[in-house]
């Protein structure tokens, strides 16, 4: 089963323990680090039906999301209490309402022409959801389609071997490999996760701010 099929199966089976019931605490604390104006367009890749989207909308931002599972996006709009306009775009679907646009399909099918201007990226659970080889492709693609828009990036650090499944560990060296040539990278927070991952291994939440490099 490939990665896309795996995630679609998890949504079908409601195996969505990664979905939070309140806005992410690190987002609430550090989102202002992006220094965005009201009305800025924020991309949330691999967004699912995250409640973080509701918070971003409440703060006056325009939210653009990319999500593989149409079921997730249907549920998102139901929970927002908003009726979307749905448009077919070749291999994608577009769910749109006031201040929110969601593209349903493979993230690698989304182009910068389709997205338009993106002011910032909020990556809470996208990079860490992908296998190592896919992360290389994803990081480059995200840079390309957003024209190196600044990012608030939430990752996990732990010893990978006990848990060879998502969310995957992404350490500082890998962050620098993906983004070091294109961004100024700053670690905003590294906090040990109480109990580790399922009690099996010590783990940390790590929050990164990626600002466009002056060299670009």
Question: What's a concise summary of this model?
Answer:
The chain has helices spanning 3-12, 25-30, 51-58, 70-80, 112-115, 132-146, 172-179, and strands at 41-45, 62-67, 85-89, 92-97, 100-104, 120-123, 151-158, 183-192, 203-212. It has 216 residues and is of the alpha/beta class. The protein has a single domain, classed as Vaccinia Virus protein VP39 (Rossmann fold).
Describe the structure.
With 216 residues, the protein is of the alpha/beta class. It has one domain (3-154): Rossmann fold (3-Layer(aba) Sandwich). The protein contains seven helices and nine strands; from the N terminus they run ααβαβαβββαβαβαββ. The longest helix has 15 residues, at 132-146. It is globular. 35% of the residues are buried.
Strand content: 25-35%
The CATH superfamily is Vaccinia Virus protein VP39
Runs in which pLDDT lies below 50 for 5 or more consecutive residues are none
Total count of strands: 9
Whole-number count of domains: 1
Just give the CATH class. Alpha Beta
Average predicted confidence as pLDDT = 91
**What is the H-and-E element order?**
HHEHEHEEEHEHEHEE
Radius of gyration: 16 Å
CATH architecture: 3-Layer(aba) Sandwich
- Order of strands across the main sheet: 3-4-5-2-1-6-7-9-8
Q: Can you give keywords for this protein?
A:
Rossmann fold, 7 helices, 216 residues, globular
Topology:
Elements: H1 3-12, H2 25-30, E1 41-45, H3 51-58, E2 62-67, H4 70-80, E3 85-89, E4 92-97, E5 100-104, H5 112-115, E6 120-123, H6 132-146, E7 151-158, H7 172-179, E8 183-192, E9 203-212
């Amino acid at each position: 089963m490939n990665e896309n099929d795996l995630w679609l199966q998890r949504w079908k089976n409601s195996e969505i323990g990664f979905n939070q019931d309140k806005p992410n605490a690190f987002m609430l604390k550090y989102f202002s680090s992006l220094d965005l104006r009201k009305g800025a367009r924020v991309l949330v890749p691999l967004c699912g039906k995250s409640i973080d989207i509701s918070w971003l909308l409440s703060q006056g931002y325009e939210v653009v999301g990319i999500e593989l599972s149409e079921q997730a996006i249907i549920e998102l709009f139901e929970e927002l209490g908003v009726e979307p306009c749905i448009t077919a775009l070749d291999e994608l679907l577009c769910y749109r309402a006031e201040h929110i646009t969601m593209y349903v399909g493979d993230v690698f099918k989304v182009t910068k022409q389709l997205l338009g201007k993106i002011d910032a990226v909020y990556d809470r659970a996208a990079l860490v959801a992908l296998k190592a080889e896919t992360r290389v492709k994803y990081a480059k693609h995200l840079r390309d389609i957003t024209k190196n828009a600044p990012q608030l990036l939430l990752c996990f650090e732990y010893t990978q071997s006990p848990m060879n499944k998502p969310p995957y560990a992404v350490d500082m060296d890998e962050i620098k490999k993906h983004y070091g040539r294109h961004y100024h990278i700053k670690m905003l927070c590294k906090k040990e996760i109480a109990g580790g991952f399922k009690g099996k291994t010590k783990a940390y939440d790590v929050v990164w701010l990626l600002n466009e490099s002056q060299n670009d």
